[in-house]
Protein: Lysine decarboxylase DesA
Organism: Streptomyces luteolifulvus
Amino acid sequence: MRSHLLNDTTAEHYRRSVTEGVERVAAKLATTDRPFTGVAVDALAPRIEQIDLDKPLRDTTAVLDELEDVYLRDAIYFHHPRYLAHLNCPVVIPAVLGEAVLAAVNSSLDTWDQSAGGTLIERKLIDWTTARIGLGPAADGVFTSGGTQSNLQALLLAREEAKSDSLARLRIFASEVSHFSVKKSAKLLGLGQDAVVSIPVDHDKRMQTLALAHELERCQKDGLIPMAVVATAGTTDFGSIDPLPEIAELCAQFGAWMHVDAAYGCGLLASLRYRDRIDGIERADSVTVDYHKSFFQPVSSSAVLVRDASTLRHATYHAEYLNPRRMVEERIPNQVDKSLQTTRRFDALKLWMTLRTMGADGIGELFDEVCDLAAEGWELLAADPRFDIVVRPSLSTLVFRCIPAAVTDPAEIDRANLYARKALFASGDAVVAGTKVGGRHYLKFTLLNPETTTADISAVLDLIAGHAEQYLGESLDRAC
Ligand SMILES: Cc1ncc(COP(=O)(O)O)c(C=O)c1O
């Protein structure tokens, strides 16, 4: 069994195993002609169920053959240009190389004595990101597992900085289309049920700042505490960007912590042409960035950044075995003092390899391309009488629904769109997402693949319209 331990004596075994795995995946990627096979749960589940985990196959080739059967064949492939669904990006090769290196070396980013250069590399990337945001000389941050954790940590700091002895009086303001992790964070932070005040959005799905001002005033008048305003720079459903400068003004006026959830919009930090869309982000007290959404990084890769490094102390606990106080005096750097996690992956390495290979401009160029694609997709949809489109994209998302000719019943239109999404998924020809707008079912393209073309968009729209028509045909048959 020791032959499976990665060490000085097994370097050759490691090289062979990993190469065999890489070759399988490379062959798979080269021949994947659809984002999904359309496999049904009922077909896949028994294949996984019947595997006896207490009876190992022992041989790498056999294990990879089995993996082909239970996972690789039917995986959802984000690299395919017709995967248009959620906020998943195709990944860049330097980052995948970073992933392989970090798994093998297996540094843990909590302390210097478990990571050495890893700690310094992470710190340099945090400084790079805070400089791109413009958070100023006292800024800091830490890598996290994702936007959910980044938002949670930011709101933890905001809660502690609010210095209230009554959690029930704290209020967080976020737009009605902000990410659900804001509400989840409020719950985890022990805030009351009414802690998150939902602010309406305008026609472009941006937070209405007049409504925010009104709610902040009301909060003050009621003797409550405006703990934080969460501005979203790239909403999950629409990619809309809240008016950051106006929100910053209101935060300053009411003494509220300004958190910018740029999990999606952070790609603009590297943009060559659209950086101005997130102007005002530099006034935030904290920012969430998900490199695994718009920096083309493999999951996970995210960070929470703060204007004032000292606020990170709210996540600091000392343990004699790990990070005793004397280490601070000895100026030995560690990241665990800033993190909600203890043992932590060296995700930063992926971004490091990316920036050292492609440069920030390389990433920005790719993100600009998907923003341009979305603008072209909007033109296509707006000119197509079969579809109704919700909002002109600020990033790379299109939300629309098929309105089949001669159908006026909104519930029937809902059903046709739900059917079309499901049928498309089952066919594996493309994967699209869905959401609700004004209580009605819509479809969503999140465009994060620069390889997707307007021809792909047109083809998928035709497929959707075809499935919707088929649904209506069948529903007519059922009625007869
Ligand atoms: C705006 C926004 N914030 C936060 C998150 C949560 O990020 P994660 O899935 O990385 O936890 C998402 C995820 O889609 C998001 O769109």
In short: The first strand starts at residue 140 and ends at 144. The chain has a mean pLDDT of 97. Residues 108-345 form a domain with the Aspartate Aminotransferase; domain 2 fold (CATH 3.40.640.10).
